[in-house]
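REQUEST ID: PR-0412
SUBMITTED BY: lab tech R.K.
PRIORITY: routine
TASK: structure prediction, single protein chain
INPUT:
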Amino acid sequence: MPSTRNTRRFCSLLISFALLLGLCACSLPPGKSSCTLFAMDTYMSLTAYGENAEAGLEAAADTLRSLDKLLEPETEGSAVYRLNHGETVQDEAVLSMLHTCEAVFEASGGAFDPTVYPIVKVWGFVDAQYRVPTEAEIQTLLECVDFAQVTVTNTGAGLPDGMALNFGAVAKGYAAQHAADAMRAAGVESGILSLGGNVQTLGEKPSGGLWEIAVQDPFDESVSVGTLSVGGGTAVITSGSYRRFFEQDGKTYHHIFDPRSGYPCDSDLRSVTVVCQDGALADALSTALFVLGEEAALRLQAELDTFELLLITEDGRIVLTGGLSDVFTPRKDSPYVLSYPQ
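STATUS: complete
OUTPUT:
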């Protein structure tokens, strides 16, 4: 029987919240309010500042719960369920995320593809019934993995028969940004949201200066590798093989799949952190770049030049692109070697 790591995942998320909130707790002005909730299969922590903080949190939580219902692929009647069952959908959130998926699918050469969902499902990462499927099962399902066959326009979207998708690799980044927008609309000018491995800042830090975001150590989830100092309106999103996995017959299988093979990707990276002004894009890129590996990830970052990267490699290096070299502070006892691509 496979052994799972659900308890470890829960503890890891709590530690992430503690690291984040601890960094935000210094010199706080009055009017700080926080809340936690569970949505999109993860624990979320929201913090708002100012006289409208409570209203902002309520608006943000409502936004997150609404998107959760809209995007749940296994809930009958949701937009994604309808899309996966042959209907044309016109929901703004779905169309927006599909356009983001399309851009990252093309830029990554297919390393990112949300239509890999049936394969993720057969491996047990949807219902926690983990197993290694047969090669025949994988090859059959791969015939329906190809985002290029998805119809996406500004007014509607549809899938071919037999195809299904899930926004798990883009939804939280999109949701965090829109929850921050809901806070702002409620009169909140400063706040921070953590949705699992997705952090979104709103406005400037109330005590002045930049927000300090802890980046979790993927080899020791009880600590961070250091902090990134970022301004308002910034998404800091991390994907890594250490977050969800199972073990079977002495081998570990993680949840980040290569859509081209149907197997968990064999990456030389342990985690990928993307810093970007677009939360949905950062979320999708963090998955795509993990699949691509270090060399291709850095090449794509240089080509697009719209985001920054912090990569943690399997051989114990932290690789920083140019825009992060002056804003990353490693922890004092860090065992990692810092590396800067030319």
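NOTES: Residues 197 and 238 are 5 Å apart (CA to CA).
REVIEWED BY: pending
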